[in-house]
Write a structure and sequence with these properties.
The chain contains 5 helices and 3 strands; from the N terminus they run H-E-H-H-E-E-H-H. With 103 residues, it is mainly α. The chain has one domain (8-102): Arc Repressor Mutant, subunit A. It has a 3-stranded antiparallel beta sheet. Helix 1 crosses helix 4 (76-85). The N and C termini lie far apart (39 Å).
Length: 103
């Protein structure tokens, strides 16, 4: 599967899940994910991104009734490389902040 077709909001969503270590059985509810630093006008885009990422098998439902999500443990290595490459990702911004602090 090509990873180049991920939008910025999808990459940012993956970055948020990865930075909070929401992998396999460690999960987060969708409502909580929407409260995690997104601007109010971005919440609809995040919901669409989550649906898209579920179809692409990056995210899976842990408890469908409670709307709990986690990263697919088989795709974690791929998610790490995606988040490290993308300049819009939270991991990339964190690395930049650390290098700026050292200067």
């Amino acid at each position: 599967m090509k990873t180049d077709n991920l939008s910025d909001i999808e990459v940012a969503t993956l970055g948020k899940l990865l930075s909070r270590k929401k992998i396999h059985s460690n999960h987060i509810r969708l409502n909580t994910l929407l409260k995690c630093g997104w601007k109010p006008h971005e919440k609809g885009q995040v919901k669409e991104a989550v649906k898209s990422l579920i179809k692409k098998d990056f995210i899976r439902w842990v408890k469908r009734g409670k709307q709990a999500l986690s990263l697919n443990k088989e795709k974690v290595a791929q998610v790490i490389t995606i988040c490290a490459k993308e300049p819009s990702s939270s991991l990339h911004k964190l690395k930049e902040m650390k290098t700026n602090e050292k200067k």
